[in-house]
Amino acid sequence: MEDSFKIPQLLLRYALGITFLTPVADRLGILGAPGTGNIEWGNWNNFIDYTTTLMPVFDRPMVNVMGGIATVAELLVGICLIIGFKTKYAAIGASLITFTFIVFMTLSVGIQKPVNYGVFTAAAAGLVLSRISIYTWSMDNLLNKKTK
Q1: DSSP state of 30
Q2: Residue 145 within a domain
Q3: Could you tell me if 91 and 75 are in contact, meaning their C-beta atoms sit under 8 angstroms apart?
């Protein structure tokens, strides 16, 4: 039986990976200065200011640490999804990260923000992607073929 899900799973991996890498680039100032174009933060300080509103129970140094952990996690998940390395685990990680965002965003600013930002969609996409058995055109598939 032919795998008819080759291209959709590849597109889902890329879309979800880019969904994680773009905010990282934004908060590091790579996409442009604050207030230009569609830039949400434009620098780390603006990102931490926003994150502080999502985590009002934590003081700023702790939010800085949490923001750093989230940024590293998003970077790793995004890269792994795009190249297809440890894809199942990266997809599960993507869902866990986005479910965490859903909880903090909903509790602090309401349900509309995670809906507007597509956080529910990203969480569901990660779950769907984690259930695929073979990731065609991925490092996983390439490494799996070399070990056989």
Answers
A1: S
A2: no
A3: no
